[in-house]
Each structure stands twice: as C-alpha cells, then as structure tokens.
Write a structure and sequence with these properties.
The protein is about 20% helix and about 35% strand. The radius of gyration is 24 Å and the shape is elongated. The strands form two sheets. Strands 4, 5, 6, 8 and 9 form a five-stranded antiparallel sheet that branches. It has helices spanning about 1-15, 25, 100-105, and strands at about 40-45, 50, 55-60, 65-75, 75-80, 80-85, 90-95, 115-125, 130-140.
Length: about 140
Amino acid sequence: MRKASAFVALLLVSCGLLAGTGAAAEDRCPQSPDFSGPCPRLQFSPHYTVTKRFIEVKVKTTIKARVAVSGQLPGLGESPGLRKTIPAGKFVKFDLGIPLVLNNHLHRIGPKEFLNVPFVARVNHVTGNVSTAHLTVRIPGRFGS
C-alpha cells in the first residue's frame, strides 16, 4: 500500500497538482504586487483632437488597470494629468485641459507653427517602462486668433 500512495503523490507533484501556490513562480509582472498575471501593456491611439480648451487622447490597456496620462509642457514640466481605471482592450478618452500658461504660449506662435507636446500614459503601481506608452501631440499656434 505504501508504494501506491508514494506513486500517487509523485504523480500529483509532477502534474503540479500538489505543488504549493507558486504565486511567486507564476507572477509575470514582478514590477507590481497589484498584478499576478502579465503586466498591463498600454497603447495610445495615433488619433487625437486639439481644441481651444483641451487635448483629447485615447489609451487602451491589455488588462483592466488604473492609468495616468500626463503631458510634458515645454518649459513648465509635467502637467498634473488625469487618472482613471479603464477596461481591457478598449480605447478610452482622456480630456486634458490646456492650462493658461500653455494657451498664452500658443498665442505667441503663428498658426502655421506647431508646439510638440510629449504625452505619457502609465499604469499606477508598476515600476519601470514595461507599462508606459508615449505619444507626441502637435498643437498648432494661435497667433492672431
């Protein structure tokens, strides 16, 4: 009887049924304790909209995650940005307001000139570059408007 139970235990271990939880071994996103599966991957839509008051960008992620989107304003540093939880596989709009300082700068350049503003999307609580996406938005000047 002892041989049979040893054989069953060996069979269960080799099939992975008796092994420990193995959460650390299965963690495919070691940069974050929030995700035990793969780290979320982000993507900006190449299409964006610029109006007088805001810049609309769209972001999607491979798994449901809390995403922060911000812009790097020329000479001003990073904008406060927006944060929201977005579902997997669907582009979600982020409407980022154009601050007064940026609007004033746009009024100093001509309508045929553009200001390139880099945007970054990040998944909160994931360190490193594995869960970031980048997009440069070209904002036309507003001189005379």
